[in-house]
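Practice problem: predict the structure.
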Amino acid sequence: MSTSTVEVVELIGNPRAGSRTRSLADAVLAELTGRLGQSGTHLGRPRVLELADVVGVTFGPRPARAVAPLDDPFAPVRAARLLVVATPTYKGTYTGLLKIFLDQLGPGDLSGVVALPITVAASPAHLTTVTTALRDLLLELGADVPAQPPAVLESRLTAPAEVAAEWAARQAGEVADLLARQPVRATTT
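Answer:
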C-alpha cells in the first residue's frame, strides 16, 4: 500500500467566487479525505481555482479583471491526480466560464486524472443533463470519472455536509478504486 499523497485540484466554474457550489465541492472533498484516508489513500490539501477570480468575469458594465490571476492556470489542472470540477447550472448547461476554460485543454490532457464533476441545478431535468454533459466532456479530455458523480438540487444546498456525506457513503469506494488504477504521474510544476 502506497503512502503517497494524491494531488488535488478543485476547479470552481461559478462566476461568483465563494458560492454555494464551492461550499458543496469543499464538503465533498472533506468527506472523501476522511473516508479515503481510513483506507490508506491520502488526499493532499486541495489547490482551489475559482475561475471567477483566476479569469475574471462580470455581468455588469465594468470590465472584468482577474482578482488572483495565474501565469498558467492550466498547469495545476493537468498535474492533478484528483480534479474536482464544480458548476452550477446556467441556462440548462454548465457555465460558459467553465466551458471556455476546459475548451483550452486538448484530448488526452487529463489522462491519468480522476475527475469528479459536481453539478448543481434547480430542476431534476437540468441536473441530469448538466451532469451527463460535464461527465462526457471530462471523459473526452481523457479523465476517469465515477459512474455516479455528485449531482445536487439547489434546494439541498442548505446542508452541503449532509449531502456530501450521503454521496461519499455510496461512492467513495469507486473514487478510491479509480485512484488506485491510475499510475502516479510525474509533475512539472
